[in-house]
glucose-6-phosphate isomerase
Amino acid sequence: MHLSIPPSINYLTGHIDAENVVCKETTLGALEGVFANETQRAASAQDQVIYQVEMLPAQHAEGELNFGVSHIEPGSIGDELHMTRGHIHQRKEQAEFYFGSQGEGLLLMQTEQGEVSIEKVFPGSVHHIPGFVAHRLINTGNTRLSALAVWPAIAGHNYDFLEEVGFNVRVFRSSTTYEVVYMDKAGE
């Protein structure tokens, strides 16, 4: 019998400890068209890391699951809070789970018909993202927001949702905390 040590997760930071962790950084320069104020985004440091994803090597077979962690840095572009690009699954019927690890933020979910729901993300929070729902994480705090994710290997990611439909909600820094603003189709 062979005893092996599996990957582990630090639940307080969301850091995955494994030999073969895949890490991806998304900089401000890669987020053209994501923030409401494109002029402000373009004038800011393009190499600034907005979020990172750590994940175990991707599985691809039917019935398999993938596991990863998104880390969104605190801050804003203009007054709009840092967020992930957001996506809907290529296989739209596939659901996903998020688990809050550190920091505070929001999980924005939107159906293709434009119906929006928002959940607070905090250490220990559990979020079921149904199929046919686009989703993004937004950091509303002053520290890194981290959320663990488990999704079907066959789900895929469709980032064209932003251009095809777009999110109807934006989250801006306010004098006390944050403000959720519903946008019309023109983005105003």
Notes: DSSP finds two helices and 15 strands in the chain.
